[in-house]
Write a structure and sequence with these properties.
There is one protein chain. The chain has 2 domains: 43 residues; 55 residues, no CATH class. A hairpin with a 7-residue loop joins β1 and β2. 44% of the residues lie in helices and 14% in strands. The protein is built from 3 helices and 3 strands, in the order αβββαα. The protein has 110 residues and is of the alpha+beta class.
Length: 110
Amino acid sequence: MSELPPDLPRLRTVVHYLRHELLRAERALNTAEEREALAARRRPPPEPPAWLIERGIGVGRLPVRVHAGGCWDSRKRCTAISTDEARRALAEQVPPCPHCRPDVALGMPE
């Protein structure tokens, strides 16, 4: 950092200048944050994945249910999977969700 002046009048001038610059920077920051928030509100929400697999709790976290992507009953323990993975899971006897019926949508009813 550069040396500050030793006398009181010039130190006051420096402080006044820095306060003014800080105010300008804060205004610019607020404007940028508002612009970013507006852009985020205008962005459409991301498309849900086509298929989800719900895993159990605990060590190993085995699959417990297959869901269609927009299922209202999917939980936090769900992860996105491909169509082939969904078919494979259903073929391996992972139960389909009784609400969204991914087995029917994939043409694999019991």
